[in-house]
């Protein structure tokens, strides 16, 4: 039996289930009970058993901060890619991707807006059993003007997409008909957006997954396990994509 500190995710079988993607704001691995518990986040990841995870609010180490991503990589056995938005000797913090598939290329995009909290996007090419997907993991700002500027920067990367694309993360868009979401529809299929925040009583669909081409998207769902309810203040969001024809 696998212990809570060793929750490795088994290799996938794409022919039977397609591709499973998840986005998860891990809240620094601090649960709603105030406890720092990376092993609890790892256990939630094992429950989901996704092929690719986009994570937000991840401590990435430093002289005064834990390296939660390294702990998650060790506990799950997945490949890890860090996309720090704050990078100082004392503290590294930001986005991350965990995947069971090889990562072929990594790019970062600075989405910081004026004097507000630093933001960014982690842009990775991932070889998913012979098909390369471009996965863009991000965490947008709290102000509407900030999000509009950030989404325009992100969309400039997709004027001529050569690969299938997954854009996912915590978009912080509180309004169903906000300009950020309307702008994204011009490039991506409008997927179902169930409520993910806060876990105690979900009211807002802050976490989103967008796919191009849209016909590959089969289903979007929230992972509402008892463990996920306390591990972070966001529930994970999962998308199921069809295998390549």
TrEMBL record:
An example GO BP is: GPI anchor biosynthetic process
GO MF terms listed in the record are: endonuclease activity; exonuclease activity
Instruction: Show the Pfam families listed in the entry.
Output: Exo_endo_phos
Q: Which UniProt keywords apply?
A: Endonuclease, Exonuclease, Hydrolase, Nuclease
Q: What sequence ranges are listed for the domain Endonuclease/exonuclease/phosphatase? A: 22-234
Q: What is this protein called?
A: Endonuclease/exonuclease/phosphatase
Gene Ontology cellular component? Answer: membrane
The highest taxon in the source lineage is Bacteria
């Amino acid at each position: 039996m696998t212990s809570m500190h060793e929750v490795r995710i088994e290799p996938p079988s794409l022919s039977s289930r397609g591709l499973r993607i998840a986005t998860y704001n891990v809240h620094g691995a601090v649960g709603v009970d105030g406890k720092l518990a990376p092993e609890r986040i790892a256990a939630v990841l094992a429950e989901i058993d996704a092929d690719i995870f986009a994570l937000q609010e991840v401590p990435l180490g430093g002289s005064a901060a834990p390296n939660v991503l390294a702990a998650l990589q060790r506990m799950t056995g997945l490949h890890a890619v860090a996309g720090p938005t704050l990078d100082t000797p004392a503290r590294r913090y930001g986005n991350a991707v965990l995947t069971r598939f090889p990562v072929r290329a990594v790019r970062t995009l600075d989405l910081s807006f004026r004097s507000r909290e630093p933001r960014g996007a982690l842009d990775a090419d991932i070889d998913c059993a012979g098909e390369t997907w471009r996965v863009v993991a991000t965490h947008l700002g709290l102000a509407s003007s900030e999000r509009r500027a950030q989404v325009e920067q992100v969309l400039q990367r997709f004027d001529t997409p050569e690969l299938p694309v997954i854009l996912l993360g915590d978009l912080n868009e509180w309004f169903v008909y906000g300009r950020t979401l309307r702008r994204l529809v011009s490039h991506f299929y409008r997927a179902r957006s169930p409520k993910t925040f806060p876990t105690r009583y979900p009211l807002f669909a802050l976490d989103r997954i967008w796919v191009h081409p849209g016909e590959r998207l089969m289903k979007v769902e929230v992972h509402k396990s008892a463990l996920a309810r306390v591990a972070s203040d966001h529930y994970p969001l999962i998308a199921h994509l069809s295998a390549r024809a």
